[in-house]
Amino acid sequence: MQVGKSLSTRILLHSVVWVFFFLAPLLLSPPGDFAKAFLESDNLLSLVLRNGLLIGLFYLNLFYLAPQLLFKKGVLLYAIVAILLIVIVSLINWQIHHHLSEPNGPPLPWEKMDPPTMPPMDREMNPMGGPSRDMNPGRERPMMFASPLFSSYLLTTLVIIFSTSLFLWEDWNRTKERAREQEFERQNAELAALKLQISPHFLFNTLNNIRWLVRSKSDQAEDSLVKLSQLLRYILYQTTSEKVELSRELEHLSGYIELQKMRLAEADTIDFEINGIAENKTIVPLLLLPIAENLFKHADFSAGQKNLLKIQIDDHRLVVVSENKFLPKTENPEKENSGIGLQNLQKRLRIHYPDKHVLQIATRNDRFYLHLELLIN
Q: Using the 8-state DSSP alphabet, how is residue 61 labeled?
């Protein structure tokens, strides 16, 4: 449907341009010449034939010569053929103009003509003894800015130039569109790979937590399996589209955090908050999950510690703040926190939210800080 609409728009645009091309010389001419062009069949036929040749040359160059010769055979051959066509079409149009529009005009160089005679009553002598003046100047052909032959060459050359320029412009647009499509396909492939990384990474961490609950003979082991099944159902069936409702994404994130908190001996060591209205807003699915995974993987949840994950929603601005204390055994915090999760987050932000996000990650002393600001729909 879009292609048909584009084609019809293009045809309409070309038609308007050619109508203007046909009428512009007439509209700019004196009123008498304008009426003469339509009242005299020879003049009208001359206009139709000459403009028809130029239109045919335009599209011959646009659809055949430029694509087949300019790009495939080289500039030199194309230039030779274009010049030959300019000469041929210009001469033909000149002849049409001479024989139809100016049948009584000046003779062609090769046409024989008797010396002009002037009836005595049409001339009178200049009283000052100078050359005679015509008493009926309307019979002589008015002076033109350029000869018809030169005008024909100029107009034909402009038609070739505009046609070639249009072809190069359209080819540049097609090349640009293909590049966009290739980039879009590349990004889709990369996003698909990133999504495939999210699910195993999430599942691996969650199963480790459930294993710890089972080995601890915790009563929460069964509840954790139920929550895991709910999270997997969301990942498998609710994240196939490019965007999901922010409220659903935050609900999934809350379920993941509740699942992770089951293994904590001190539940108050994690502070999780969501403030603001999430309805009628969308976000890329599973975008925030790596932030929560990173926190539970590397944070110290021993008694007395404080770790936080806060989400603030203001109109179309989403702010995520994560802060945690490193585990005592962490020898190189920056290296350990540069795993698959945060790398995945950075890549997806660059693809989905270019120039619409700010992500800051820092480590000071024994604490890790993450600050994300995101413009959402």
A: I
Show contacts of 179-183: CB within 8 Å, 24+ apart. Answer: none
Q: How far apart are CA 280 and CA 377, in angstroms?
A: 8
Helices 246-261 and 289-298: crossing angle, nearest 10°? 20
Beta carbons within 8 Å of 290's beta carbon, 6+ residues apart: 198, 341, 342, 344, 345
Write out pLDDT tens, residues 143-197.
Answer: 444 577 888 888 889 889 998 998 899 889 888 888 887 777 666 666 565 555 5
Tokens of 60: 């011959």
Residue 249: CB atoms within 10 A of its CB come to: 24
CATH fold for domain 218-375: Heat Shock Protein 90 (3.30.565)
Q: Is the pTM of this model over 0.70?
A: no
**From CA 90, how far away is CA 326, in angstroms rounded?**
83
Output the pLDDT for position 139.
Answer: 42
The CA distance from 322 to 307, in Å, is 8
Residues 292, 283, 184, 360, CA torsion sign: negative
Average pLDDT over residues 346-370: 89
Q: What's the CA gap between 205 and 325, in Å, rounded?
A: 19
Q: H helices within the chain, ranges in order?
A: 2-28, 31-39, 41-60, 75-96, 148-215, 221-237, 246-261, 289-298, 333-336, 340-352
Show Cβ contacts of residue 89 under 8 Å, excluding neighbours closer than 6 positions: 53, 54, 57, 156
Distance CA 336, CA 364 (A): 15
Question: What residues does each domain of the chain span?
Answer: 2-107+146-178, 218-375
Structure confidence by residue, pLDDT tens digits, 111-146 = 444 555 555 544 444 444 444 444 444 444 444 445
Which one is predicted more confidently, 74 or 273? 273
Residue type, 43: N
74: alpha, beta or left, given left = phi > 0 and alpha = psi -120 to 50?
left
Q: How far apart are the first and last CA of the chain?
A: 28
